[in-house]
UniProtKB/TrEMBL annotation:
Keyword vocabulary terms for this entry: Signal
InterPro entries the record matches: Pectin_lyase_fold/virulence (IPR011050)
Organism: Allocatelliglobosispora scoriae
Signal peptide: 1-28
Protein name: Uncharacterized protein
Positions of region (Disordered): 24-99
Ranges of compositional bias, category Low complexity: 48-68
Length: 395
């Protein structure tokens, strides 16, 4: 997107309004109370120089994690967006005890690929990653991580949690067209990603505090993303939870039954896109919750002299040419953008992109500087006005 703060104040193409949206609501939202802190499993060694981490303190009496997604969302999920059958896993992290569920075990399993499940005991556990788990592009065409609703992968506020990049030579090139290949196909389901941090990542791998993906395909089902972050400034980087560049045949990323933030203090923070961010990538967001996420950059894109850039898309920041966004059965509330699009920033540079909102609620999303008239919390430039059906949009 090539939109500057100064252009905003001039009322670019008549679509912007200075936002007096008021402050976001202070209540926790539909997920209720702030998230409990599950006990911690030992993280193990991420590489040969990492030091051993403390023994786990998981107990069978630990409270289960709240369910992911919007309980009131009942939009039909197509087959390609549904959870993968993991009843016959290729490999399992852990031997049934929390102590066996280590960072090293997760890193090794992801590198080998296949269907990966966890055996960490009956109580919820947190595995604090001592190294980022990276997909090896030639290891397996399919990688599935299924936490069974009891596993949290944590970046410990220090590192990105999961990485897949078909154009990264260090992870192996498998085709001559790395940015448009149909594999690997990565699915994460029934997992929580917490405190991922990609701050300091620059160039093509910037953004994506919890998950970064380029190429292949990505799907997220029944998962939760809390307290993730990426760089606080930058005109076009984003995605405190997830950043995606390129998907095979321009097919969409599916986000199904998942929660991003969910309560005060639990949301993602980044220059742009407190939850999701991409360039030229399509998304389908179904039966999910996005709340209390923030885009904290200043100066929009490109940043004028003296401004660091960013601050758009409190929950979702999408840029590029031809791409689509479908939000259905989803609640997007109490997100904030220092610049434009407190809920969603959508800019199709060649005006071919389209957006639809179905059976959803967008409310309390503050756009501090600008948004599109008649679309509270949204800044939109595309082929035509967003299609809105059976939905509520309000400040």
């Amino acid at each position: 997107m090539r939109l500057t703060r100064s252009a905003t104040l001039l009322g670019l193409v008549g679509t912007l309004i200075l936002s007096g949206c008021g402050s976001p609501a202070s209540q926790a939202g539909p997920t209720g109370e702030p998230l409990p802190e599950p006990p911690t499993a030992s993280a193990g060694l991420g590489d040969s120089t990492a030091a051993p981490e403390p023994s786990p303190s998981a107990t069978p009496s630990a409270k289960p994690l709240p369910a992911a997604g919007n309980p009131g969302g009942h939009v039909a999920v197509p087959a390609e967006g549904r959870a993968v059958d993991t009843s016959r896993p290729t490999r399992t992290v852990g031997d049934g005890t929390p102590a066996s569920c280590t960072s090293a075990a997760v890193v090794a399993a992801v590198a080998k690929g296949g269907i990966i499940t966890f055996a960490c005991g009956s109580a919820p556990v947190v595995i604090t990653m001592a190294a980022t788990a990276k997909v090896r592009n030639a290891a397996s065409r399919t990688i599935v991580l299924d936490g069974g609703g009891r596993v949290t992968l944590s970046g410990g506020g220090k590192r990105r949690i999961l990485y897949m990049n078909t154009c990264d030579e260090q992870q192996g090139w498998t085709t001559s067209h790395c940015n448009d290949q149909d594999h690997p196909v990565l699915t994460v389901q029934n997992l929580t990603f917490a405190e991922g941090n990609s701050t300091g990542e620059r160039g093509e791998t910037e953004g994506g505090g919890a998950i970064f993906v380029r190429g292949g395909r990505l799907k997220v089902v029944n998962s939760r993303f809390v307290r993730n972050r990426c760089d606080s400034t930058g005109p076009d980087l984003g995605g405190a939870a997830i950043r995606v560049l390129d998907q095979s045949k321009d097919l969409p990323v599916y986000i199904v039954g998942s929660t991003f933030g969910g309560a005060a203090g639990q949301g993602g923070i980044c220059s742009n896109g407190g939850a999701l961010s991409s360039i030229g990538v399509s998304w389908v967001v179904l039966n999910s919750i996005m709340s209390h996420n923030s885009a904290i950059g200043k100066g929009a894109n490109p940043a004028p002299a003296g401004w660091p850039g960013g601050g758009s898309g409190g929950a979702i920041y999408l840029d590029g040419n031809r791409f689509t966004l479908r939000i259905a059965g989803t609640i997007v509330e109490n997100n904030r953008a220092n610049e434009g699009g407190g809920a969603v920033f959508f800019v199709s540079n060649d005006r071919t992109g389209t957006m639809s909102i179905e059976s959803s609620v967008l409310r309390g999303n503050r756009s501090v500087a600008f948004e599109t008239a008649g679309l509270p919390g949204i800044f939109f430039l595309g082929a035509r006005k967003p299609t809105i059906t059976s939905s509520t949009l309000k400040k």
